[in-house]
Amino acid sequence: MTVLTDIGQLATCPPDTGGVGLVDRAALVWDAGRVVWAGPETELPDRFADAPRQSAGGRLVVPGLVDCHTHVVHAGDRSDEFVARIEGTPYLEVARRGGGILKTVRATRAASDEVLEASARQRLVVMLRQGVTTVEAKSGYGLTVADEIRTLRVVQRLADSGPQRIVGTLLAAHVVPPEFADDRAGYVRQIVDEMIPVVASEKLAAFVDVFVEEGAYTPGEARTIFEAARAHGLGAKLHGDQLSDTGGGALAAEVGAASADHLECVSADGIVAMAEAGVVAVSLPIATLVLGQEPMPARRLLDAGVRVAVATDFNPGSAPSASLPLALWLSCTRQRMTPAEALRGATTEAARALALTDGTGSLVPDAPADFAVFDAPSLDAWLAGWDTRPAVRTVIGGETAWESEGMGTGG
Q: What's the pLDDT band for 410 if we cut at 50, 70, 90?
């Protein structure tokens, strides 16, 4: 049993209610990796009087952040595209010239498992220092049966070794690999007949994702892939409506997807369909900033009753930043989400986008004791300015996984 006191402001983020459950001058109690009690320090029950105590030093405490959309396992570098975009080359033109996703595919195929695992681990450490305790990790840079499977096995090893909780997603339908340029149906059959059965049998992923967009996959191809995923007990996710209105929001609702991600060009009909089906919209504001796009219309989605999550989309091309706090700040400044809506988007709503029902993303009794301490007195103060400093402390399952110098938790 451990008690954290001197919390300037605590965000409990109850999963089934609105808001983030802010408590000023709070305390938090956990035992055996689960939250036991959270509330005002003045109301701390007497039964915890003899428990070891730690101090938050008047700082903000939030649930461990959940990054529900990342491409953390990859090799190679695409900094040349950064310059090309500055010079005015559109994203799709970069891809047509052999850059974009396929450039990362070539580098990832050539990399060893050891290189992929080591580089991904370094990225996860960066995320950990930003208060991220749960990460979704997609494949999608292999695009062969062997390379997609080995990518997800790397993800599995990362999950097994911790400290973060990691959810794998099969994104074999990222783009069509060049060797199948004249046989798209043949590659879809490979995904359906060879990849999905192995992924399901080895429990390498919880979801199957499809990128529905010009130059990627059609809604019809996505339906075929999602039907196979459902038959093997895997959930659906969708990259949709990123560069054009492809009907992604409506398609996500039709197939019962856990989330539809990007949605910069989502239609009014798509928004209504997602609200009715309970599909989580995942905003990726770092990508829209990098690509010079208008971001997902978060206010329209929220006002229509759609749950909105926020994630980094961390990848080497369109979102080369692993900072979820940066994404939260952008969701406030560019999408007019309130700090409370943004924090819910990276905690309880992000957990919902990953179909996590164990309390991940919340600090309520029986939820995992995953939390982050930030050097700010309140949530509003934390997100009012873009602060490059890491979290002061990140805790997973009640154990400190990262702590900056001088935290002074006490004992």
A: very low
